[in-house]
Design brief:
heterodimer, A: mainly alpha, MetI-like fold, 13 helices, B: alpha/beta, D-Maltodextrin-Binding Protein, domain 2, six-stranded mixed beta sheet, five-stranded mixed beta sheet, 11 strands, about 40% helix, globular, disordered N terminus
Chain lengths: ~280, ~350
């Protein structure tokens, strides 16, 4: 009986395996193969094995780009945590009905294309935009502030785009936490701050780490945010890969950069598993 | 020369999709099709609608944002799938060498004789066998004299200290690196390492003056007042000028770059006959004038008989009507091969990163 049920389940799962093999694994293999080939004279690749694409990453220019992308990612993760964790904490304290409303509002922007939402930010920030008009009308500033096309604007865009991921995974963890443990620590004489630091924070660590993974990984690749909000003056790894694939016409190097990003991502997920003790990536959300 | 207008593009797309719904109702043998592949909004939707009605054709409009990407896409389908492609001149050269173009049957294009020879017989098609010039253009400088203290006459003025954080540049390595090479007295397509090192140094010195880099919508950065000086494609400059006739358009004294986006029929186009009808249609003087004046295209006209149909506003726009003696010897951006394309891209990366 049990056995029969099992085989029926696997039958329904097959389409997913086939889908994954065709549209995830196969393209991935293609990228791996290309990353070891030489660039063609006009475009594309020639079937000649080389390690140059990986060795090329040692070039100081790419080192500087990786460092900047890393800096953007770390800063984004840190800010989303500082904003997202308290937010999630207070959402958990809300009455149940309000809580689902807040979560719904948090998800609502995802129904709108992210480029449209970014353009909304640009309308707010540009020099004849909403914020500058208000500031000038109130006489707070004479000249419009240069809010757009700088590093700060890139970070604002990143935090805006990725904060929901941090909030939702922290929320999941905090909501599941047994508050009786916190009460016990308070009864035993811990101050609210100490109770938070020694009980709440460690207990919700899996959610925090999951949130950090979900924010950190995409933030090195969201090239359109740097293009739109930063005036294309910040080069992320995503921008670099796009340039290599298009104007630089160097597919193999673009593929090698993608592989490097993949390895870094796997490394981060490995750290996540170590820290959270979770065996399933499904726990990320 | 090239630009995207999401809104208009969406409307065009919606229109095309709606129209294709109607034609879907007709018997199958009547259905004539045409697949266009170019930048979004580059063939105005009213022109497409008129062509569809006049010739009983259903047009499918596929768009790209990057000329190289489009070229690679066309190569991957072996010159099939599309009937009409409009792309940048240097990609045309590669496309022709790769055998991705179909030779035109001029007997099917009686309006071909209307074309201005000034814009023909270029490096990508010396014998005029494959292409029809669509949009010629030259990158220009435009600035707001009320907010700029220096009198800009050429590229070299962009380095002026008073322009700190106020220039928007086209986010396109081949054009900007090329123009600055020209400023330094080299060719736009220079590959000499010494010259490239020199231009990179100049670019790094320019960085503090750069407010933003933008490929598709640099005119927005000017219109919103973010930047007071812009170096971008002529059609983009024309657009800014239309909104702000008080702005100054500069024909850079160090010389100008030049480019022509052309129409061609891919070698394995599924509907080559309809494609020839389309070419004849857009070589009609009135249609050609309307395309040049369309707010999404906004470009120099290359039809000898179109002038009577061009508006006064168009004829008075300095970015659209450039005297031949000012334009001088036209130097095109040409293909420099993948190796040098990458070197340009690397210079550009270091410039952005700085």
């Amino acid at each position: 009986m049990q056995k029969e049920k099992k085989s029926r389940i696997s039958l329904t799962v097959w389409p997913f395996y086939i889908w994954t093999a065709l549209f995830v694994a196969l393209p991935m293999v293609y990228v791996v193969v290309i990353s070891f080939l030489q660039r063609g004279a006009t475009w594309g690749v020639t079937a000649q094995f080389t390690l140059d694409n990986y060795l090329k990453m040692i070039d100081p220019m790419y080192g500087a780009i990786f460092l900047e992308a890393l800096y953007v990612a770390v800063l984004t993760t840190l800010i989303t945590f500082l904003v997202g964790y308290p937010f999630a904490y207070y959402v958990c304290k809300l009455p149940a009905r309000l809580r689902s409303l807040v979560i719904l509002l948090l998800m609502a922007p995802f129904w709108i294309n992210s480029l449209c939402r970014l353009n909304g930010w640009m309308i707010l920030l540009k020099s004849n935009g909403v914020i500058n008009s208000i500031l000038q009308a109130l006489g707070i500033v004479d000249e419009p502030l240069k809010l757009l096309y700088n590093f700060g604007a890139v970070i604002v865009g990143m935090v805006y785009a990725l904060a929901p991921f941090m909030i939702l995974s922290c929320y999941n963890s905090i909501e599941k936490m047994d508050w009786a443990v916190v009460e016990a620590s308070r009864d035993l004489g811990a101050s609210p701050f100490k109770a938070f630091l020694t009980v709440t924070l460690p207990l919700t660590m899996p959610g925090i780490v999951a949130g950090c993974v979900l924010v950190f990984v995409p933030s090195v690749g969201l090239f359109f945010i740097s293009d739109l909000m930063g005036g294309a003056k910040t080069v992320l790894i995503g921008n670099l890969i796009r340039t290599e694939m298009t104007t630089a016409r160097n597919w193999p190097f673009g593929a090698a950069l993608s592989m490097m990003m993949l390895v870094v991502t796997i490394g981060i997920i490995w750290v996540y598993k170590k820290v959270s003790g979770s065996n399933s990536l499904g726990d990320l959300m | 020369m090239r630009r995207t207008f999401t809104k208009i593009g969406l409307i065009a797309l919606a229109l095309v999709m709606t129209l294709s719904l109607f034609t879907g109702c007709q018997p199958a043998e009547d259905a004539k099709e045409l697949v266009i592949f170019t930048w979004e909004g580059y063939v105005p939707d009213d022109i497409i609608a008129e062509f569809e009605e006049e010739y009983g054709v259903t047009v499918t409009y596929n768009y790209f944002t990057n000329p190289d990407e489009a070229l690679q896409r066309l190569a991957s389908v072996d010159g099939g799938e599309y009937d009409i492609v409009i792309n940048s001149d240097y990609t045309l050269d590669i496309a022709r060498n790769e055998g991705l173009m179909m030779e035109l049957d001029k007997s099917k294009i009686p309006n071909y004789e209307n074309l201005n020879p000034v814009y023909m017989s270029q490096f990508y098609d010396p014998e005029n066998k494959y292409t029809v010039p669509y949009v010629p253009g030259t990158p220009l400088i435009i600035y707001d004299p009320s907010r700029v203290d220096v009198d800009i006459t050429g590229y070299a003025d962009l380095w002026d200290e008073s322009l700190k954080d106020s220039i928007v540049l086209l986010d396109y390595d081949r054009v900007i690196v090329g123009l600055f090479l020209k400023m330094l007295g080299y060719s736009i397509n220079e590959t000499d390492p010494e010259a490239l090192a020199q231009v990179e140094q100049k670019l790094l010195e320019l960085k503090p003056n750069v407010r933003a880099l933008n490929m598709d919508t640099p005119y927005e950065t000017m219109l919103s007042g973010e930047a007071t000086v812009g170096l971008m494609f002529g059609s983009q400059v024309a657009w800014v000028y239309n909104e702000h006739p008080d702005f100054k358009v500069v024909y850079p004294k160090e010389g100008m770059g030049f480019g022509i986006d052309c129409v061609f029929i891919p070698s394995n186009a599924p509907h080559a006959d309809v494609a020839h009808e389309f070419l004849n249609f857009i070589c009609d003087p009135e249609i050609s004038a309307r395309i040049s004046m369309d707010e999404n295209v906004m470009a120099i006209n290359c039809n000898l008989k179109a002038e009577p149909y061009l508006s006064e506003e168009y004829l008075n726009n300095p970015a659209l009507f450039i005297p031949d003696e000012v334009l001088g010897e036209k130097e095109f951006i040409q293909d420099i091969g993948a190796e040098y394309a990458e070197q340009y891209a690397e210079i550009w990366n270091r410039f952005k990163q700085a």
